[in-house]
Amino acid sequence: MRAIVCEQPGGPEALSLRDIPTPEPGPGEVRVRVEAAGVNPIDWKTRSGLGPARSFGGRPFVVGWDVAGVVDALGPDVPAEDAEPEGARGFVVGDPVLGMARFPSPDGAYAEYVTAPVGHFRARPSDLPVVEAAALPLAGMTAWQSLVDVGHLEAGQRVLIHAAAGGVGHLAVQIAKARGAHVIGTASAAKHDLLRSLGCDQVVDYRTERFEEVVEPVDLVYDLVGGETAVRSFDLVRPGGMLICLPTIAVEAAVRAAEQRGVKASGAYVRAGGSGLTELLRLHADGRLRVLVAGTFPLERAADAHRLSEQGHTTGKIVLTV
Questions:
Q1: Is the terminal CB of the chain with fewer CB neighbours within 10 Å at N or C?
Q2: What is the C-alpha separation between 99 and 111, in angstroms, rounded?
């Protein structure tokens, strides 16, 4: 099969299109013929040697984890019926699926085929296009697990989301709104109308306004920027509130700053097969969740997709088509 392989850490040029053996599904696994693969910041951070790459032992790896496609083969012991409340179930060959395959292992989704435990996939609804489906799992589950599992966001609370129009941010806005929160988002002025349409009650232009001067205190800050933004955000967190910081390199500093202010701070680490994807699909079915795609690239142009993602200014997600 064709796959995008990273031989050693580096820039986008470290990615190459290779022919490698097609994987076989193990016990409890399915093989998926990939139709589209989502591009996430963790992909290019891993390519550069950060994050999960530190545990790969220097081996070449296939990049990426977000996937949408069709079940191509079944391993032994794949269940035939619903296996758990979260919605994982057995599949048959030909079923359309989406999921976050094997995160954070090095056997990635920028390829023609990927294998993973059946619990990492969900059935893809017929009204969710394959490109949007590939854009949803990692970013959507990151937002869900951050706001719901870590932040325990409840109806009536106020939440501030930084980088609200980005890949994780635009989904976080909709999740927060669906849970009955008052949602404030930061983004450049050109994205404000979009954010209002997604559910933001207040939008702030981070380029011309200091958010801490125009936003009333909040119960939860979801910081997708890090650095100075996290530190400034603490001025807005109510006593007993929380700041959740997604850039992992910023978590330690945020926790220290939180302790000095008497509030909580936490990182957020998405789990494959964990909570959220089934709930996200329910929100989509109810018309309360849109998946925005900033652009698509063919598999062989994965390096160009990474270059665009690294600029950090896209609205929604970038997707590779296979």
A1: N
A2: 14
Measure the CA–CA gap between 232 and 215, rounded to whole angstroms.
Answer: 12
- Convert the pLDDT of each residue in 129-164 to its tens digit: 999 999 999 999 999 999 999 999 999 999 999 999
pLDDT recorded at residue 39? 98
The string of pLDDT tens digits covering residues 84-126 is: 444 446 799 999 999 999 999 998 999 999 999 999 999 999 9
Q: Which two tokens stand for residue 1?
A: 């099969």
How far is Cα 107 from Cα 45, in angstroms, rounded to an integer? Answer: 16
The answer to pTM > 0.70 is yes
Would the pLDDT of 296 be above 90? yes
The DSSP bridge partners found for residue 46 are none
Quick one: which of 274, 254, 273 has its CA closest to 264?
A: 254
The contacts of residue 75 (CB under 8 Å, 6+ apart) are 24, 25, 26, 27, 28, 29, 30, 31, 115
Question: What domains can you pick out in the chain, each with its CATH number?
Answer: 2-136+291-321 (3.90.180.10), 141-266 (3.40.50.720)
Angle between helical axes of 169-178 and 277-285 (0-180°, round to 10): 70
Q: How far apart are CA 288 and CA 303, in angstroms?
A: 33
- C-alpha–C-alpha distance, residues 113 and 96, integer Å: 14
